[in-house]
Amino acid sequence: MNFVYRLLDRLSVYLPLIVMALLALSSWWLVRSAPELLAPPSDKPLRQDPDYRLENFSVKSFDENGRMTREVSGDKAQHYPATEDLHIQQIRIYAESESGARMNARSDQGIATDDGAKVTLIDNAYAIRHPFNTSPKIELRGQRLVALPDEDRVLSSDPVHMTRDRDEFTADTMDFNSNTGEYRLQGRVRGTLQPKTPARK
Questions:
Q1: Residue 70 in contact with residue 95, Cβ under 8 Å?
Q2: Residue 191 has pLDDT above 80, yes or no
Q3: Can you name the residues that pair with 155 across neighbouring β-strands?
Q4: Are the C-beta atoms of residues 154 and 176 closer than 8 Å to each other?
């Protein structure tokens, strides 16, 4: 009997370790048996088709004084959540800078980002910066113009045609500031300057 008691005493010392080992083995078996329960949920893929459509719409922006600074309108539009872009047919843009310089633009198609910070005009793109202070009217034409309304800039990495009052220019690329009227033409630049009409007395 003494031998049995001594054996039970020794087993009682190791009993917590045995229980812990059994628990660890059961946890390992559970993980191996059902790994899908612990797998992180996969991200839901974004929709590739439009999530909403618009017709004959107009979106306007105003400053803190209630003055309209921007308007984007079009005949039809489709929004793609995968790229967060709005694809617009017959797009029209009106923008006015803080100094009061006004600009209108249009094209057959357009792509606008959700925040409105970038609008790409595609096919028969046309923009006009109206005369302001001492700057004359400036017209821009091309197959692709990129408008950055928040920066008062119009860019083109494709050939562009510019008319400044009666002067005409063509270039491979362009960077135009619609607020100041300054522009930078690069690539093959050609221009036709018309003589200024003398002021009448």
A1: yes
A2: yes
A3: 146, 175
A4: yes
DSSP 117: S
- Highest mean pLDDT pick, 1-5, 10-14, 189-193: 189-193
Give the span between the Cα atoms of 190 and 10, in whole angstroms: 101
d(CA 123, CA 102): 22
CA distance linking residue 36 with residue 33, whole number of Å: 9
Q: CA-to-CA distance for 77 and 28, rounded, in angstroms?
A: 55
d(CA 74, CA 56): 6
Each residue of 120-153: pLDDT tens digit?
999 999 999 999 888 899 999 999 999 998 888 9
> Is the per-residue pLDDT at 38 higher than 50?
no
Dihedral of CA 189/127/90/67: which sign? positive
With 0-12 / 13-18 / 19 or more C-beta atoms within 10 angstroms meaning exposed / middle / buried, residue 147 is buried
**CA 179, CA 88: separation in Å to the nearest integer?**
25
The structure's pTM equals 0.72
For residue 62, is pLDDT > 80? yes
Strands (E) across 1-84 are located at: 52-62, 68-80
Q: Rounded CA gap, 176 and 188, in Å?
A: 17
